[in-house]
Design brief:
Four Helix Bundle (Hemerythrin (Met), subunit A); about 15% strand; three-stranded antiparallel beta sheet; about 325 residues; binds 5-S-methyl-1-O-phosphono-5-thio-D-ribulose; 15 strands
Length: about 325
């Protein structure tokens, strides 16, 4: 069964605490925009589309709790920097400031659109997948509130008998692959094997990876895209081994203000997430550790971009603009 990362009940927005998964299914109540921003910042909820929906409901909560909309919008905008869906959702909520009914309708519409676009992304992505696929990070229902993007396509391709097995990168340091993707694939019964990130090259070299599909936090108009740290390495490996490589995303994850990926802001997270796992030290105490949470992959390494409008092919600066209605 599909898992849900949030629910709106009795004027409260509930977040499934993804920090506790897969060990425990606990829910966190959000009554205010500040609660929703904390939930995003603290990774109770994560994944680009899910962050967008949470921010939209954060603005609904601002109305319900009497918070100042300008301040609520600002606190939500500061919760995480990389996924453009956060800013996309908040921009859509702005015309409804001061109108509870309107803001509720818009937040629900943003959530509904996540579901609708992901049905199409899953169908479109399934067509280009076969055999054994590798994925990085988590792009399933937990990351979106819908059917999932890359993981939605994998699940659909398995349902159609096209995909037989999934290699799940554990996704150091935050372990979204090990904790969340493994949890979701196990729930839906798709055969999968967890590997550490540094094993991907080995299985590719043995001819055991037929395609790579993964998510996107923000894409530029030329097809460069930011995704979970380690994505760039997987793309280079796929290119070397001549394995098709597909980012999957709703077109709302494309930032129309960016021509290239150079200016995408990259979140820097605490080094403690590198030196410890679940609070257990893995390195000498106080040892410096870097933690950029995302990297940018060049469009030159991309075979095709899986969207709700179909799979787009190079030149991406044309095919993306066409799909987004920015060209005649
Ligand atoms: O730091 P996270 O867990 O929010 O990062 C998530 C990712 O990088 C996903 O691949 C991306 O948001 C796409 S989700 C469909």
């Amino acid at each position: 069964m599909r898992v849900v990362p949030f629910k709106f009940e009795a004027n409260t927005f509930w977040l499934l605490d993804q920090r506790q998964l897969p060990l425990e299914e606990a829910w966190v109540a959000c009554h205010t925009a500040v609660d929703a921003a904390d939930g995003i910042h603290d990774m109770v909820v994560r994944g680009a589309p899910a962050i967008g929906v949470t921010a939209a409901y954060g603005m609904v909560l601002a109305h319900l709790s009497g918070e100042n909309p300008t301040e609520a919008d600002q606190v939500l905008r500061k919760s995480r920097p990389t996924a453009v869906n956060l800013f996309y959702a908040l921009d859509r909520m702005k015309p409804h400031w001061g109108d509870l009914e309107g803001s509720l309708r818009e937040a629900r519409a943003i959530w509904d659109e996540v579901e609708q676009t992901e049905l199409a992304i899953s169908q479109n992505g399934a067509r280009v997948l076969k055999g054994q696929v590798l994925t990085h990070c988590n792009t399933g229902p937990l990351a979106t509130g819908g059917y999932g993007t890359a993981l939605g396509a994998i699940i659909e391709a398995h349902r159609q008998g096209r995909v037989s097995h999934v290699w799940v990168d554990e996704t150091r340091p935050y372990l979204q692959g090990a904790r969340l993707t493994a949890y979701e694939l196990q729930k839906v019964g798709v055969p999968a094997t967890l590997i550490t990130d540094n094993m991907a090259a080995y299985f590719m070299s043995k001819g055991q990876v037929d395609a790579v599909i993964l998510g996107t936090d923000r894409m530029a108009l030329n097809g460069d895209f930011a995704n979970k740290i380690g994505t760039y390495g997987v793309a280079v490996l796929a290119h070397y081994h001549e394995i098709p490589f597909y980012p999957a995303l709703p077109l709302s994850s494309v930032d129309p203000r960016l021509e290239t990926g150079e200016a995408i802001p990259i979140e820097e997270r605490s080094g403690l997430e590198v030196t410890t796992v679940h609070g257990i030290p893995m390195a000498p105490e106080g040892f410096p550790a870097a933690h950029p949470a995302f990297d940018v992959t060049s469009h030159a390494l991309v075979t095709g971009i899986v969207t709700e409008k179909g799979v787009l092919y190079p030149p991406f600066d044309e095919s993306l603009r066409l799909a987004m209605g920015l060209l005649d």
